[in-house]
Amino acid sequence: MKFPRNRMRLSVALAGTLSAVVPLTVTAQLEEVVVTANKRATSLQDIPLAVSVVDAQIVERSEIRDLLDLQSVVPSLRVPQFQNSVQTNFVIRGFGNGANNPGIEPSVAVFIDGVYRSRSLSRISDLPNIEQIEVLRGPQSTLYGKNASAGVILVNTAKPEFETTGHIEGGVGNYNQRSVRGYVTGPLTDSIAASFGGSSLQRDGYFDNVALGTELNDRDRWALRGELMFDISESTELRVAVDFDELEEACCGTTNVYNGPAGGALAALSIVPGIAYSTEPYEYETYLNQDPMTKAENGGVTVDFSTELGDITFRSITGYRESKVDNENEDIDYSAADAIGNQRYLTDIDTFTQEFRLSGSNGAMDWLVGAFYYDESIYFESDIDFGSQWRNYANILVGGSPAAGEAVIGGLEALLGYPTGTFFEPGTGVLEMATMDNETMSVFGQASFDLTSRTQLTLGFNYLDDEKDVGIAQVNDDIFSKLALDGADGATALTNAGFLGAYPGAFEATFGLPFTPDNAALVGSTPAGAAGMQQLQAGVLGQVAAAVAMADLSDPTQNPFVGLQALQFLPQMLEVPNAANNGASADEKFTYTASISHDFSDQLNVYLTYATGYKATSWNLSRDTRPTQGEYDALVSAGVTLPNNLTIGTRLAGPEESEVLELGIKYNAPWGYINAAFFNQTIEGFQSNVFTGAGFNLANAGEQSVDGVEVDVMLRPTERLSLGVSGTYLDPFYDAFIGANVGGAASDLSGTKPGGIPELTLSLIGSYDFTILGWDAWIQADYRYDKEVDIQDGGDQSESNILLETTNSRTREVGLLNASVGIAKNGWEFRVWGRNLTNDEYLITWFPSVAQTGSFSGYPNQPRMWGASIRKSF
After folding, report:
1. pLDDT range class, residue 2, cuts 50, 70, 90
2. pTM, entire model
3. Cβ neighbours of residue 290 under 8 Å, at least 6 residues apart?
4. What is the pLDDT of residues 816-846, one digit of tens each?
5. Which of 243, 419, 725, 836 is least enclosed by beta carbons within 10 angstroms?
6. Which residues contact 325 (CB under 8 A, 6 or more apart)?
7. Which domains does the chain have, with CATH numbers?
């Protein structure tokens, strides 16, 4: 592992340039930034770790309402939102996964007041009275253990106080936004303080559903949080917090970025005759025959106890959380035709966590040891049903028109002996049900030694044991998907079709009469004639069956019915556990950190860190979960009867193992600081989760690495002006990735650049405080820039990338400007804010449209938002 020389020179030059512009005569001082990244209060400039810090003032003034908005001020962080309001994915330094598939845990761990939040649903709350948010970059498995192979986000809220204070705030904005927030804290007794906060946010949607005249991407959510703090003694404290939040929103709108051949068929069947589907993403128009609804509830209890036992501090953090999301009416054909009638997701997660830790100092050594326990149960349902127009849509795809296609599909029903209307009957489809129980235990420790008065060595370890038990089952009443068109059912259809084609000629040749119903009745009216007809039928049938037996049923030229397999996109599932797969995984891993830091002066600190990270096995709980070749072969050898059309794939992705070599430079001065990190980070077995149109393909990338540079500069030129400049330069690379899913086919992406990771990201933030007409005033602005990058993997290997380049949808480039201005006096504050003020337009992602070969859909970013609020503090 080594650092690329050219990037080292580039970054040193950048840091030098930034430091050179600092005025030498400034007298303003930046307050010391204290972080808890190493699970104890430490100055940001002393910790040998790359950390970005966002304080309460930036959160308020930037109108950061949840963790999705945080990415605008942290360049190494990206938080895309996908299918519904709670499907987000946290990415740090280009590494991150976990969205949409509940069996996949994230690579970026999120902790709120010390409690691990395992899924995105439990992280979107509008938390009252945030004190500070810390983003830890790179593997953090030593102190944070579970699923921190790419980084950690720490959200800390303020403790209740023994002085009564609080605020209430109301706001309005475009798209009819209305918001209310409030917070109060104060004493209940001399030793008990309490706080209570809540928020409500409502907003109309900015996406128009043209077919129904409705709106999508609205906001309708509220949250409550209460906390008690027991000041038991001078050395003992207990915090108990309870929170609950809920949302019910129509989300998320998709746009057509490319209409393939199937687009016209769906448009012809639209509930709005003659509707024309736009492929301009930023018209924010979609065409659905039903609005997707997300209903989510999330709540929990946190108990945080700490006490000092002489020179040792003991802390216990207990968390219990329940999260439930019900996505109704997902119209995943993304059209105004009632083709796929409905898709529904239901996820129910219960999580219990417990952490104990001891910390202290012993002369020249600071130390910490602890243990962590995690127990989570997941229940997941995914239901997809055919709509009233699905058969007509299939008919058009097959025959070019409903009548021509019906002759084929209806004819196949007759050949196989099914009643008319059996195939693609409205309301039929598949229901998948999955459970996952996960139990994790770990022990960890870290110690820092003063080798000299200016040199410190830090060593840490974590031992993790992770066990998962999975159950996956399916109810499939889609008769068509079960047909073995290249097997027994195809042979039956060919035989019956061949018989019907050959028998009339054989009848006439045998009996000297044209084959008509009347002539058949005439011949069969005598015993000899009936016997002759039976003998003739058997003979013709035998000849046809013999010919069919010699045919290659997988060859479309010999078996035309095999061409209908494209309509079998809801395949049968091999359930788990089964005779070859017990549905269990057990992982254990020892991870560690070693870091040495040296103070070259009171202002300059340099550190070198080597750290490893780990994320345990993830299971594919989507309908694309498929047996491996080994599992399939074992079942065949055991004589197990397998479902028709069973394909080979993956059940799970093995563990992710990460490592980073990082050189950090931290320069601290009264006017601010300049921090830089140069790193090489590698993840072996990166868990790639690719949407395939109706499910997800989960696979391990052999190795993904990134060479990078991060620079954080915070300046305080005057008492009134604060400036921040942050930048990240990344050079990501698939060192080895055989079997990647590109365009629905296995591909070798070794040697290519991963999609979605911009080479350069910059974040600029400035805040100026002033006085006007006796009022305290301020103005703040932040800007984020992401260099243009392919949205998806594959580069020029991907035919989809090449196709979407013609519509300017292949890549994404980001330039977001946010700003706010406010005035305050006598406890009153008025604030005006705007996000994406330049109305920058880009696609968050694109994906293959469901059951529409050659078509692609995408999620455009949020347009310009603005608003105003008034707050009264007391």
Report:
1. very low
2. 0.88
3. 212, 329, 331, 342
4. 999 999 999 999 999 999 999 999 999 988 8
5. 419
6. 84, 86, 121, 294, 295, 296, 297, 345, 346, 347
7. 5-388+426-483+568-873 (2.40.170.20), 488-565 (no CATH)
